[in-house]
Structures are given as C-alpha cells and as structure tokens.
Write a structure and sequence with these properties.
Membrane topology: Multi-pass membrane protein
Bound molecules: adenosine-5'-triphosphate, magnesium ion
CATH superfamily of the largest domain: ABC transporter type 1, transmembrane domain
GO molecular function, one term: ATP hydrolysis activity
Keywords: ATP-binding, Cell inner membrane, Cell membrane, Membrane, Nucleotide-binding, Transmembrane, Transmembrane helix, Transport
Distance between the termini: 49 Å
CATH topology of the largest domain: ABC transporter transmembrane region fold
Pfam families: ABC_membrane, ABC_tran
Shape: elongated
Structural class: alpha/beta
Helix content: 55-70%
Radius of gyration: 36 Å
Strand content: 5-15%
Number of strands: 12
CATH class of the largest domain: Mainly Alpha
Number of helices: 22
CATH architecture of the largest domain: Up-down Bundle
Family: Belongs to the ABC transporter superfamily. Siderophore-Fe(3+) uptake transporter (SIUT) (TC 3.A.1.21) family.
Length: 648
C-alpha cells in the first residue's frame, strides 16, 4: 500500500475549532440528546446537593453546636446524611442516563463507518492502511463514546458547579472567594497550554497505534512467508521499532500529564494555605465567624475536584476531538464511484461489453508516466468468450476492474449494451456483470453462503438456492465440498476450515457463476488448478458461458483455447484481436507472450516445454527486439520473415 494517512500526518486533520470539530458528531448524538441532557441534569443536581452540605454545616455549627442542643444537632446530621444519599442517587442516575445513549452513538458510528468503508471505492482502500481503518473503527470511536458518556457531561456540569460554588464562596467573604478564584487562574492557563501540546501528542499516538495495528495485521496475514524465509526476526525488529516509537509518544503524553498534575496538586494547596491564613485573620478582625470559615473550607473541598478536573476534562475533549477528526477523515472522503443521478436501466441485457478509448491510471502514478491503460478499444460480442492475454504487469487485472466500476476509467468509457456503465445503478451493474479474482477471497461463512454471496435475491436455504448452488459447484468442479465435515454447510475462511489454493479458486469461480450474470469477468480463475481439473472446468464453463459474455484473463495456453477470440494487451493498448491461431500467425508479440506462458506452465508442472523450436527462435529474436515499437506488429497484417518461419 502506498502513501497512506499514517504517522506522518500528526496534526489535527481539520482546521476547525474544537467545538466546531466536535459539533460534527451532532447527527449521531441527536437521537439520544434528551438522555444525555438527563444525565447532565442529574449530575448538576448532584453537584448542587454537594454544595448545599457546607451551608447546612454552617447552620449546625453556628446554631445548635454552639448552644449544645443535641436533638437539633442530630436532626442536622440527618439532613446532611439525606443530602449525601441524594447526591449518591443522582450520581447513579447520571450513569444510568448516559451509558445507554453513549453506546448507542458508538454503535451508530461504527455501523455507519463500516458501511462507508463498503461504499468507498477500491482506490480509497489502496491509499489507506487497514490498521489505520481498524484503529479508527475500534479505538477512536470507543474514545468518543467515553467522552460523550463522561467527559462532555462532566465538563458542562463542573463548569456550572464552579460558577455556582464561586458565588457561594463570595457570600461568606469577598477576600476568601477572590483568593480561591485567583489561584485557579494559573491552573487554567497551564491547562490551556497543556491541551495544545497534548492534542498533537494524542493524534500522533493514535496514528502510530494505527500503524502498529497494520504491522500486526500484515505479519499475521503473511506469517507463512515470514516463516518460510526466516524473516521472523526482521519482522520483530521492525515491529519493535514501531512499538518503541509509540512508547516514546506515550511517554511524552505521560510526562505532559505528570507536569500538569504537579500544578493541579500544587495550586489548590497554596489556595488552601492562603485562605486559611486570611480566614484566621478575618476571624480576628470579626469580619467572619468560625462557622463561616469551616463552611468555606467544606465548600472549597467540594469545589476542589471540579476545579482540578477541568484541565483533565479539556484534554479529554481534545482526545475526543482528535478521534472525531480521525473518524471524519474517512466520512469526508469523497466517494467518486456512486450511483448516477439519472440512472439508465437495462432490463434484459444482451451482454455486449465494449471499451471505447478507455484510459486508466492509478492515483499514485507519476505525472510523467503514461496511462497504464492508454486507449483501450475492444468489443466483446454478446455470448462471446474473450481471452485477455499480455505480459505480467501489462494491466490485465486492472482492465478487468473497469466493467464493474471497482475503478472508474480516467478517460473514454466502458459500455454494456451501448450504455456507459457509469449510467447504470451500481447494484444493477454488478448484477449484470460478475467477477472472480486472481486471489480467491473467501469469507468466514459456510460454503453455501460463500458461493451464493452474489445472490441477494435468493434464500440460500431454499430449494432454488440449493439448485443454484449445485449448478455452480458442478461448473466449478467443486464436488470436494461434499467431503468436508459438514458438506456445503462447513464454515470456511479465516474462522473456519482452511482450503487449498485450488479449492478456494473453484469456490470463487462457483461464486461468480452462481451470480448468473450476463457478463462474467474472470481474472485468471484456473491458475491454481491441475491440468485435468482445468479441462473439466473449461468443459463445464463452455456450457454456462454459452449465452454469457465472458472476459477471461488467461495465464495458461489451455485457458486461451477456451476462448472464441483472444485480445492481446500490450503497452496499454489492445494491439491485436483474433482467434488463437490467427494471432499466432500474425503477431510476434503474441507468440512471445504465449511462449513465455508455456515456459511458466512447464516450470510449474515440471513437464517438458512444448515450445516448438521455431517459436523459441522467434521468442529469442523477440526478446532482443523487445524495444521495438509495440504497435507495428499489430498493425501489420502481413506475415513477417519470422511469421513465415513459424508457419512452415
Ligand atoms: N492498486 C494499485 N495501485 C497502483 N498501482 C497498481 C495497483 N495495482 C496494480 N498496479 C500497477 O499496475 C500495473 C499493472 O498491474 P496489473 O495487476 O493490472 O497487471 P497484470 O497484467 O494483471 O499482471 P499479472 O499478469 O502479473 O497478473 C503494475 O505495474 C502494477 O504495479
Ligand atoms: Mg493480474
């Protein structure tokens, strides 16, 4: 995967202010806003109750304690007890209110993000590392949930508590209130500076965690390769470097937090000390009495946590902002492959697939590079089977992704029955055209579900489903599924039984066939099969393909033989189209490609190459003359000297 949003990108990705950045959560929060408000109200009531306790204490100390009325003291104590109980109930109620909506928001965000990942084009997935997507999906959304449930509610409530508490502090004496607030100000300034630094660190650490997840995912996927090449140690040292980088970032975060906590601990102590001395002086002056000073300190104790927590809650808010940015990085990706505004429908397609001056280049291609597909002109007639042949890296796989719009052409167009594929609704297009890929991906599901993946119209367990399943399995020569432990209901894929490469390919082929498309695009679907099975599959395909237009990327001469015609892809263009024997006669490049396919085949099966001597000579000469212009042999219909040699 290429340049991806990763640890290089450590600043918040949006230039929005923090409130504006968080405001983007509104659509997710809106359905649960009343419950969140209920949580905030409960928290506020709890805070107000807590603030009432010092006032009651002041009354008790100032009145009954001084006069020694035991029954009134007990009554006062009961009030304090009731208030404390009320506060505890309100805190409990706050949790009840906020837990459910926060998990609801988390669930909604996760499913929306997942469906977004499904609809974003393949080109997006080329650019983004899977670990980044994973960490955004799990970690960041989880953090947003925690912030909504606790961070946001407590921030609002604690600010209100401080405001109310300060008014009450001033009620006892302006000097005490001022001391308390003045010492809080440096705390807030430090808190603000801390937030700025901490926000950047948080984003960096979240990005690095994403990179680390990518590494784990890659090495788990590639465990066989790593083991086979003894690269485990190398992978480990790369991993530990990344883990170390993340650790350093986490350490910086921890250092930032410890320095802010130093201030958070220090300033309130100073405030208490100064207030105590001032309080004693005020008592000596007769400005306040002992009961008031006691109540003042009780109130200061209640306010200490809200004041201290403000810095922490702000940094939590910044974490949430960063997480929101990271999630919205994905939401705000522009989806270029979407349903058309004015869709055209094709009820019963004939199955004519045409490429008209189709151009394509990958997004990361250099500006000076030529288009990978540089003006493809090719028409597949309805019901025709066309093999696509070309050297490795010539763009065959890329070409097969255009009809189903996994990628969109960057110039020209692809049409189905004369209609630009971009004018068809995507679901309809992909119903008409099915694909099987080079690497047969199966999902953690039963064989039945995997094969009938493209048949959303069918109940997989119905009789019709069973029929479609059997038909597809027959064509793909996949009878082996019946000897699996649970037959077609055996769970395969990552969570289930592992299948061999050839078995996987056959199921992928069955999946494409079961979709009953009008056009079938097969990217080298038979490469992992042995020659006998391939022959059987080809035979069965001939029946299925009878009224299906098929484009088959062929890496084997025997696959080419299945086709009505062959198209030769060379230097980004289709330089020759014709039957296998026609092309053998007329195209030097075709002979070169076929002979290299045969050589590969021979190397794979261990059989003696069946390249005729003449072809070998041709091949060698072609190798020497490879630099010659690509198009001259295609345009020349007349046989060259070498052609004549082959024909002899
Ligand atoms: N997702 C991608 N992003 C950028 N470049 C890509 C991507 N996929 C393929 N390419 C490049 O495009 C070129 C053509 O690749 P493609 O897979 O289409 O070749 P191919 O003809 O199918 O080869 P093979 O016969 O080996 O399967 C290659 O040079 C490859 O590096
Ligand atoms: Mg390919």
């Amino acid at each position: 995967m290429s340049s991806s949003p990763s640890s290089q990108n450590t600043s918040p990705s949006s230039t929005l202010s923090t409130p504006a950045a968080l405001w983007r959560l509104k659509p997710f929060v809106k359905p649960v806003i009343w419950r969140l408000a209920g949580g905030a109200a409960s928290a506020l009531i709890a805070a107000i109750i807590a603030l009432m306790i010092p006032i009651v204490l002041e009354q008790i100390i100032g009145g009954p304690v001084r006069s020694g009325e035991i029954s009134v003291i007990v009554f006062g104590a009961l009030i304090v007890f009731a208030l404390a109980l009320g506060e505890a109930v309100m805190v409990w109620l706050r949790r009840q209110f906020v837990l459910n909506p926060a998990t609801e928001v988390e669930y909604q965000m996760r499913t929306t993000l997942y469906s977004r990942l499904q609809t974003l084009p393949v080109s997006f997935h080329d650019r983004w590392q899977s670990g980044q997507l994973l960490s955004r999906m799990m970690q960041d959304i989880g953090l947003i949930r925690r912030w909504l449930a606790f961070g946001l509610v407590l921030l609002v409530v604690n600010i209100l508590t401080i405001a109310i508490g300060s008014v009450l502090l001033f009620r006892w004496h302006w000097l005490l209130g001022t001391i308390f607030l003045v010492t809080a100000i440096p705390l807030w300034v430090r808190g603000y500076l801390f937030e700025k630094r901490y926000g950047a660190l948080t984003r960096r650490s979240q990005d690095q965690a994403g990179d680390l997840a990518t590494s784990v995912e890659e090495s788990v996927h590639g465990i066989r390769v790593l083991k086979a090449f003894g690269r485990g140690k190398h992978a480990l040292s790369r991993f530990s470097r990344q883990a170390e980088t993340l650790r350093e970032t986490e350490m910086s975060k921890a250092r930032a937090i410890s320095s802010i906590w130093f201030w958070l601990d220090l300033m309130p102590q100073i405030a208490f000390g100064v207030s105590l001395m001032s309080g004693i002086w005020l008592i000596s002056q007769g400005a306040i009495d002992e009961a008031q000073l006691f109540a003042f300190f009780a109130m200061a104790v209640v306010l200490r946590w809200p004041i201290e927590s403000i810095g922490f809650l702000f940094s939590f808010m910044l974490d949430a902002r960063t997480a929101t940015d990271r999630v919205f990085d994905i939401f705000s990706e522009i989806n270029t492959i979407t349903d058309p505004e004015n869709p055209v429908h094709i009820e019963n397609p004939r199955g004519e697939l045409a490429f008209e001056a189709a151009h394509f280049r990958y997004q990361d291609a250099g500006a000076h590079e030529r288009d990978l597909l540089d003006g493809i002109d090719l028409v597949l007639r309805p019901g025709e089977t066309m093999a696509l042949v070309g050297l490795t890296g010539s763009g065959k796989t890329t070409l097969t992704t255009l009809p189903t719009r996994l990628y969109d052409v960057t110039g020209g167009r692809v049409t189905l029955d004369g209609v630009d594929v971009r004018d068809l609704p995507l679901a309809e297009l992909r119903q008409h055209i099915a694909m099987a890929f080079e690497d047969a991906t199966l999902f953690s599901a039963t064989v039945r579900e995997n094969v009938l993946l493209g048949r959303a119209d069918l109940d997989v367990h119905s009789e019709e489903g069973e029929r479609a399943l059997r038909e597809a399995l027959d064509v793909a020569q996949a009878a082996f599924v019946d000897s699996l432990p649970d037959g077609v209901d055996t769970v395969i894929g990552e969570e289930g039984l592992s299948l061999s490469g050839g078995q996987r390919q056959r199921l992928a082929l069955a999946r494409a066939v079961a979709a009953k498309p009008k056009v079938l695009v097969l990217d080298d679907p038979l490469s992992a099969l042995d020659v006998d099975t391939e022959a059987l599959v080809e035979e069965a395909l001939r029946h299925v393909l009878a009224d299906t237009t098929a484009m088959i990327v062929a890496h084997r001469p025997s696959t080419v033989a299945l086709a009505d015609r062959v198209a030769l892809l060379e230097a980004g263009r289709v330089t020759a189209v014709g039957t296998h024997s026609e092309l053998l006669k007329t195209s030097r490049h075709y002979r070169h490609v076929i002979s290299s396919l045969e050589a590969e085949e021979a190397a794979r099966t261990g059989s003696i190459p069946i390249i005729r001597d003449e072809e070998r000579e041709v091949d060698e000469e072609v190798r020497e003359g490879l630099r010659m212009s690509a198009s001259d042999d295609a345009s020349s219909g007349s046989a060259t000297e070498m052609d004549k040699e082959v024909q002899r």
